[in-house]
Amino acid sequence: MSKSKKSFFSFLGGYFRSLKVRGQAEKIFDSVGYIVAEDKWGQPVATGSSFFVSSDTVVTTCGSISGAVKGHVITAGGKGRSEITGVTTVDKEMGLVLLKLDSCDGEPVVVNHSNSVTVGDRVWVMGRSSHSGRILTEGRIASVHTVGEDSLLRMNGSFRASNCGGPVLNKEGKLIGIANGTFVDTEESFFVIGGQYVRQLRQETEQVRAMGECEEEYKSDLLFGLGRNIRFAATGTEVKWRYSTLNSGEYSFLLGNKLRWPVRDVSGIVVFYDENNEQVGVDRIKHRKSIGPGLSVTIKSKVDGQIQTKAKRTEFRVLDFEISEIH
C-alpha cells in the first residue's frame, strides 16, 4: 500500500475514533459539573470541573476548592445548581476529593482503569467553564511519571485551567481518569490521575466535614512535589490607583504569565480589603488576548470611588485561562 493511502486510512480511522469519543462525551456531559469554590463573603477563590461518582457526590481535584469555605456545582449546561454541603473523603497523595452536594440526583459515571492507554495514545479531556459551557479538548499521552508505586500519565495538548477535575476519555470513549495540572518555575504539566484512584476514593467515604476544615489535606504530597496548581501560573500584581487623592476608582495592575507557552482568555477577580481585612469591593477581570511566555500586560479598570477610599490592600485571584499548547 502506498504512503498516501496509508495516510488517508490513518486519517479516516482517527476521524471515526474522534466521532466515537464525541458521541460518548455527549452521554457523559450531563454528569460533568463546573465548581465554584467561595470564601466566606461568597466570592470565588477557585474554579474547576467535576463529575458524579454517586447520585449526590462528585469527585474533583483539591486545587479546585483550595482556600474555600463553601461553594456550589453547576451541571447540565447551567440549568442545575447544587450547594456543596461538605467533604467526604480526601486522597492527600493524589490530590483528589469527594464533595457531597445538596438536593441533587446526578447520574454516576463508570470509571475504568488507566492502563488502557499508552504513550502516544490520543485522549480527550472533558470539563466545564463559566462562559463557554462544555469543554472537550484533545491531547496525547506524552510520558508516564512514576513515583514509588504510583504513576501519572502526562498529556500534551491545549487545555483550560478549569479542565482540572474533569474526566479523561481514551480513544474508545471510556472514562479512564481525572485531569489535573501543575507547574513549577516555568515547567507545566497536565496529568491523568488514573481511574483506579477514583474507585479507591469512593470506597473510603468518611463522615461529611466542612470544606474549610480540610485545607491542610488539600496539599497533595505527590502533586505538590511536581509543582503548584496550574491556575497559579497566571498572576496579578498589587493595584496602582491612577489618582491617589481624587478617589476616581481608576486603577491598573500587571497580569503575568509564568509558563513557557502563551495563555489567553484569562478571567479572575480583584478583591479590595479595608484596614480590618474585610472585603469592601470586587471587580471582575477578563483579558481575552494572548499573553506570551514570561510576559505581563497592563490591565486597566475602574471601581466605585468609595472602594478606593476604604481599600488598604488588594488581591488578584485567577479563576480560569487557556493554555494554547503544551508539548
Can you walk through the features of this model?
This protein is mainly beta and 327 residues long. The radius of gyration is 21 Å and the shape is globular. A hairpin with a 4-residue loop joins strand 5 and strand 6. It contains four helices and 20 strands. The two termini are 32 Å apart. The chain has helices at residues 3-28, 195-203, 221-226, 305-310; strands at 32-38, 44-54, 57-61, 70-75, 80-91, 96-101, 122-129, 133-147, 150-160, 167-169, 175-184, 187-194, 228-229, 234-236, 240-241, 250-257, 263-273, 279-287, 296-302, 313-326. The model is unreliable at 5-16 (pLDDT under 50). The protein has two domains: 8-232, Beta Barrel (Thrombin, subunit H), CATH 2.40.10; 237-326, Immunoglobulin-like (Sandwich), CATH 2.60.40. The strands form three sheets. The protein has a six-stranded antiparallel β-barrel.
User: For this structure, what is the CATH class of the largest domain?
Assistant: Mainly Beta
Q: What count of domains describes the coordinates?
A: 2
Helix percent reads 10-25%
As laid out across the biggest beta sheet, the strand order is 1-2-3-6-5-4
Strand content: over 45%
Distance between the termini: 32 Å
What is the structure about, briefly put?
The chain is built from four helices and 20 strands.
SSE order and pairing:
Elements: H1 3-28, E1 32-38, E2 44-54, E3 57-61, E4 70-75, E5 80-91, E6 96-101, E7 122-129, E8 133-147, E9 150-160, E10 167-169, E11 175-184, E12 187-194, H2 195-203, H3 221-226, E13 228-229, E14 234-236, E15 240-241, E16 250-257, E17 263-273, E18 279-287, E19 296-302, H4 305-310, E20 313-326
Antiparallel strand pairs: 1-2, 1-4, 2-3, 3-6, 4-5, 5-6, 7-8, 7-10, 8-9, 9-12, 9-20, 10-11, 11-12, 11-13, 14-16, 15-16, 16-19, 17-18, 17-20
